[in-house]
Amino acid sequence: MHILRTVLLVLATMLASPALAQGDRPLVITDTRGDRGMLAPYVHARNGIAYLYTSYVFDSLIAQNAKGELVPGLAESWTLSENGLTADLRLNPKASWHDGQPVTAQDAAFTFSYMAQNPYPFASIGNIDRAEAISDHHLRLTLKKRDAGLFSGLLLALPVLPRHIYSSQTDPGHFASPAAATGSGPYRLVEYDKAQGRYALKANPDYYRGKPLFDALMIVTMSDDAALQALNNGEVDVISYLPPERAGDAKAAGRQVVAARSGHVVKIGFNHEEMFADADMRQALAYALDRQAILDITSARGEAALADTGYFQSGSPWRENVADPAYAHDPGHAADLLEKQGLTRGASEKWQRDGVPVTLRLLADGAQARVAQVVTDQLEAFGFTVDLRLMEQAALQAVPTGGDYDLLISSTSTTGDPSDIANRVTGQSWNADRYHGDGRLDAILKEAGQSATPDERLTHLHEFQRLYARELPSLMLLDPVMATAHNDRVDLSFMPDGALIGIPTTIDKSAFVTE
Amino acid sequence: MRVLFGLAAGLLLLLAAQPLMPAYRSSRDVLAPPGRGHLLGTNDIGQDVLTGLLHATPNTVLMALAAAAVATATALIIAGVAAAASATIRNMILRLVDAVQVVPSILVLLFLGTLMQPGLAGLALLLGLTSWHEDVRVALAMLRRELQRENVRFARHMGASRTYCLRRHVMPAIRPALAALYIQNIRQVTLRAAGLAFLGLTDPRLLTWGGMMQDAMDYLYTPAWLWLLLPPALALTSFLLIMLLLTENDPAEARA
Asked: What value does the mean pLDDT take over residues A117-129?
């Protein structure tokens, strides 16, 4: 009993002890999910946030400022030849690795050859024919084809690796010693606690773009409730992803909240090999659904906005600023389209084909359960029988193209450099559109990729946007809002098209580096 | 026992009347508190909680009763075989039960669920067949204790048949304990069924109290938990209480 009392007393003292003084405290950022892996290119977890954290440690040749514009990274300047096939980059001579060695063009050239051997999922270098170091600070890239996204896509995304460390590693997927995290970025990884999902980073005092804004960063795992409590108590500084409906809780405590549409849309994908092979069928479904009602019901507290149907979401720099077809709720028109496709309405207003009732097999990501239920209700009210199944993402990944489904509700990114769009439209991944149609969208995307000028590229992308909204490879439903809560120690904002590879975030490294 | 049948009949009636009940549809009245239009309020996609409770009652209760019956009966049969068998076979059976116990039942459910895509009856059977193993040891201990009692040994000595002894001496003695096992199974099965819907093994619209409670968990930090969590939780609690009272005051036992 006596011991118990002592223990309780000690615990109480520990809990009551005041927080550390503000000045020597690192900037503390919370993450709701745990471990993101070691912060090195081949061993971080395969998701955008892990990639983002790794970018604090590893710089790319090209960087972004807080507005999302391209600014010099390891490369001070760059030029592209007339035919668009040769790029010359001047590397910053002040740049050094965290172990003191200088960053040279040989390191950059090595990175390309190394990634050809050991593919890195966040940077595809298939179009690079040759990467050579002309001198210590002059890198020349030769391309196989023109690539309009070379600078804003690949070179922004590709972390440059230290040759003196990685050249001896034949299996980088298992290279997770502290040396693997030797980068050239503004922060050094000093501590990584896998079990707690905690990262401690220290400013790189020799950073070539000037001293970083904070002496230390700390990333900790916390639930939303704990994080809100800690933010309000001044124990953490940034809640990187706060559910937008909780924004009021943070504002009430005098904290700042920034929010923006994420461009990570919730959409209905179609099985293009069966009932929905024809664009008219997909349009009929779009008219049968009431997207506004889906939004009103599932996002009563402002968690999302109505998505644009032409792929690019409002705010995207690639988007043509016109209203996409809205497919406003029109059951009559939907019925006309279905009847043209040979469907009939049988007894009790149920849709039939050749006298057999039509059952729509609807799969949905478990995270989209509410949207899926509302969609189901609407489709049933319209006269379809619906077989709804909520599944874990792992199970959905195993559903093949043309598999046992008609509709699939998932969420997917529409942000980042457009060189990745072809993958998201024609790719086979479970949340890609898995669409080929008559090949027109493919062709437009190819032309966009090979454009000589940014304007030409935009023209093609706008054409893509119009055709996408008409063909509906997927029907975009909602564009979720993302929010960050923070205190006065930082100034944060969302980039218009997501950071780096299109990650919707406020904690891109541009926020922690002096410009 | 008669009360139980009455209960089951009433539930079947409720199940049959389901098409006549108001539809459980989403609406723009999201998270409305209890009031005139919605006596028990609405949930996060505007579905009426009272309607949901009505739809969920027969599903939950019938499934729980059936699944728990399957589980308890299977456990009893296997324990019976083990009790009657020689020591070697009994040990083999028990090792087998251990082996079943080691395999997480959720894995088995996942596997079978993807193969069969069960409806209400299939789900009850699946849940029953994946929850019996925990009861085998308990049932076996009870059976062996009763079988070794003097009254049974004496009756056997006097020429009574095995079935007579089972019916006359063993079953009445272990009935209260079996009833407790049954109630325990009902509780477990109800909560497990809620998890299955989330794994995509059943139609998520197959409403159960457990499922409603699980959905309510996201709203614990808002006042909405009052009308989202409490009604199904109270329904479940009172159902278990009723079952407890029914099995404790079993008229058949009173007669004996």
From this structure: 91
